[in-house]
Design a protein that fits this description.
Structural class: mainly alpha
Number of helices: 6
Order of helices and strands: HHHHHH
Shape: elongated
Strand content: under 5%
Distance between the termini: 112 Å
Number of strands: 0
Helix content: 55-70%
């Protein structure tokens, strides 16, 4: 089975080749652009030492990250300091959980206020003195 190729295999004259090369070189990106895109290494070290310098930078960053992680406080400490919420719910549900807890506290407070004893009952039970009756002025 013969493969059909679409590659133009006709010979190019040396003048056309030179013109093509010059055209591509004119549109070549600046070395600084290549450094900004991290294609070229931005270093003044000799090429033989660039890979060692790059590996040293990576190791330095890894060591710094390890130190930071070792100093990182435990989750329980962050919860105690109110940096993290004391919740096992998914992060997307934590705001709803917090809102629900707020409404539950409000409902509980309303219920306790509605069911609290009247001042007359507190005076009868000896919790308040007669002169401490808040309804009398």
């Amino acid at each position: 089975m013969a493969e059909s190729s679409n590659v133009d295999e006709s010979p190019i004259s040396p003048i056309q080749r030179r013109d093509s090369l010059e055209k591509h070189l004119q549109h070549r990106p600046d070395p600084q652009d290549l450094k900004d895109k991290h294609i070229l290494l931005d270093t003044s070290a000799a090429p033989a030492l660039q890979s060692a310098a790059h590996e040293l930078e990576r190791q330095k960053a890894a060591d710094s990250l390890k130190k930071g992680l070792e100093k990182r406080p435990e989750r329980e400490e962050l919860v105690e300091r109110n940096i993290l919420p004391d919740s096992t719910a998914a992060p997307s549900l934590q705001s709803h959980q917090k809102e629900l807890e707020k409404h539950m506290r409000a409902d509980s407070l309303s219920e306790k206020l509605a069911n609290r004893p009247r001042p007359e009952e507190l005076i009868k039970e000896g919790i308040l003195d007669a002169d401490e009756d808040p309804t009398k002025e």
